[in-house]
Automatic annotation (TrEMBL):
Keywords: DNA-binding, Transcription, Transcription regulation. Residues 1-57 form the HTH lysR-type domain. PROSITE patterns: HTH_LYSR. Pfam families: HTH_1, LysR_substrate. The keyword Transcription regulation applies. Belongs to the LysR transcriptional regulatory family. One of its GO terms (biological process) is DNA-templated transcription. PANTHER family: HTH-TYPE TRANSCRIPTIONAL ACTIVATOR TTDR-RELATED (PTHR30537:SF5), HTH-TYPE TRANSCRIPTIONAL REGULATOR (PTHR30537). This is LysR family transcriptional regulator. GO terms for molecular function: DNA-binding transcription factor activity; sequence-specific DNA binding. Gene3D superfamilies: 3.40.190.290, Winged helix-like DNA-binding domain superfamily/Winged helix DNA-binding domain (1.10.10.10). InterPro entries: LysR-type_TF_proteobact-type (IPR058163), LysR_HTH_N (IPR000847), LysR_subst-bd (IPR005119), WH-like_DNA-bd_sf (IPR036388), WH_DNA-bd_sf (IPR036390). It comes from Duganella lactea.
Length: 322
C-alpha cells in the first residue's frame, strides 16, 4: 500500500507515468500495476491514463492530500525512531526571511551541519510568512513582532533600526543634526508594500509616527536599499542585523549616536518590540532535532548578537560626526 501511495503521488506531481518511473527507479509497468492495485483497493478510479497524458479524476483530487499526509506521517515516524540513536539524523525543513536567511541563518546552519553531519536541512529563504503545518516546516525564523498563535517561540535576538549613509553622501549633503532634518535629505524608502515596523520612527518625534521622508529612490527590497545607500544614493533606515557589516567596514556610518546594546533580559524580550524568533509547532515528531537547531542558532547569534557587538567595537567616535 505504501509503495502504491508513493507511485500515485509521484505520478500526479510529475504528470507522467514514465517520469515517475524514472524518479522511483521502477519500470513503467510496475508503476501502472501499483496504481491499478490502489484503485482496486479503494474502489475508485484515481487517474485517467493515456499514452500522452495523465488526468487526475475527482476521486483522485480528493484522495491526493490524504495520500500525501500518510506519506509525510510515515516519514516523520521513521525520523522519530531514528532520533533514538545517539547521533541525530534525518531531514529538517527550515524557513527564514530572505535577507536575514542569506546573511545569518545560512552560515549558522553550515556550522550546525558540521556538528551534526547526519542531519539534512531543506532551507527556504523568502519574505513570505509560511504556514508551518501546510508547508511541513519544522523551524521558521521570523523577524518582527510575533502575532499571537499556538506556535512555540524562542527568542533569538533583539532588533533595532540604524539611520546610516555613506561617507560620500554625508560629505556632499552634510550631516542631519536631528531626525527632523531628514526631511531635507534624500531618504531611501520602501515601495509597494507596508513599511517595516519602526521605519523612520523615532521616540519623542512626530508622536512616534513615521516621518514623511522623501527621496528619488524607492524599492520593495531592503537589501537593494542597503547597496544603494553604500553607493551614495541617500540615507537609509535599516535593521541592525542588515546594516552591521557595512557600518563595521566603513561603507556606511550611523548618522545619529547609536543606542547602547540592550543587555537586560526584560528590555530585550518585550513582546511588543520587534525581535528575531525561531518558531515551531508543538508535538511534531521532529521536535528533538528542531530544538537542537534552535539552540544552535541561539548560541551562534550570541547574546548580545554578534552583529551588535561588531558595531559597538568600532567605537562611539567613529559612529558620529567629528
Amino acid at each position: 500500500m505504501i509503495d502504491a501511495l508513493k507511485c500515485f503521488v509521484t505520478v500526479v506531481e510529475l504528470g507522467s507515468l514514465s517520469k515517475a518511473a524514472v524518479q522511483l527507479e521502477m519500470a513503467v509497468s510496475s508503476v501502472s500495476r501499483k496504481i491499478d492495485a490502489l484503485e482496486q483497493e479503494l474502489g475508485a478510479r484515481l487517474l485517467l491514463r493515456s499514452s500522452r497524458q495523465v488526468v487526475v479524476t475527482d476521486a483522485g483530487e480528493r484522495f491526493l492530500p490524504r495520500a500525501r499526509n500518510v506519506l509525510a506521517e510515515l516519514a516523520e515516524g521513521r525520523s522519530a525512531v531514528q532520533e533514538l540513536d545517539t547521533e541525530p539524523r534525518g531531514l529538517l525543513t527550515v524557513s527564514a526571511p530572505a535577507a536575514f536567511g542569506r546573511l545569518h541563518v545560512a552560515p549558522a546552519i553550515a556550522s550546525f551541519l558540521q556538528r551534526h553531519p547526519l542531519i539534512e536541512i531543506d532551507l527556504h529563504v523568502s519574505d513570505e510568512v509560511v504556514d508551518l503545518s501546510a508547508r511541513r516546516v519544522d523551524v521558521a525564523v521570523r523577524a518582527g513582532v510575533l502575532p499571537a498563535s499556538d506556535l512555540v517561540a524562542t527568542y533569538l535576538s533583539g532588533m533595532n533600526r540604524v539611520v546610516s549613509a555613506s561617507p560620500a553622501y554625508l560629505a556632499r549633503h552634510g550631516w542631519p543634526k536631528s531626525p527632523e532634518d531628514l526631511l531635507q535629505h534624500q531618504c531611501l524608502t520602501v515601495n509597494g508594500r507596508v513599511p517595516p515596523r519602526g521605519w523612520w520612527r523615532f521616540k519623542g518625534v512626530n508622536d512616534y509616527q513615521p516621518l514623511p521622508v522623501k527621496g528619488n529612490l524607492r524599492c520593495d527590497d531592503t537589501d537593494s536599499l542597503l547597496h544603494a545607500a553604500i553607493a551614495g544614493a541617500g540615507i537609509v533606515h535599516l535593521a541592525n542585523w542588515l546594516a552591521s557589516d557595512a557600518i563595521v567596514s566603513g561603507q556606511l556610518v550611523p548618522v545619529f549616536p547609536m543606542l547602547p546594546i540592550a543587555r537586560d533580559d526584560a528590555r530585550r524580550r518585550d513582546p511588543n518590540e520587534p525581535a528575531i524568533h525561531a518558531v515551531h509547532m508543538p508535538g511534531r515528531s521532529n521536535q528533538g532535532k528542531a530544538q537542537l537547531l534552535i539552540r544552535h542558532l541561539k548560541e551562534y547569534f550570541g547574546s548580545p548578537a554578534y552583529w551588535d557587538l561588531a558595531m559597538e567595537r568600532v567605537g562611539a567616535e567613529r559612529q558620529r560626526r567629528p
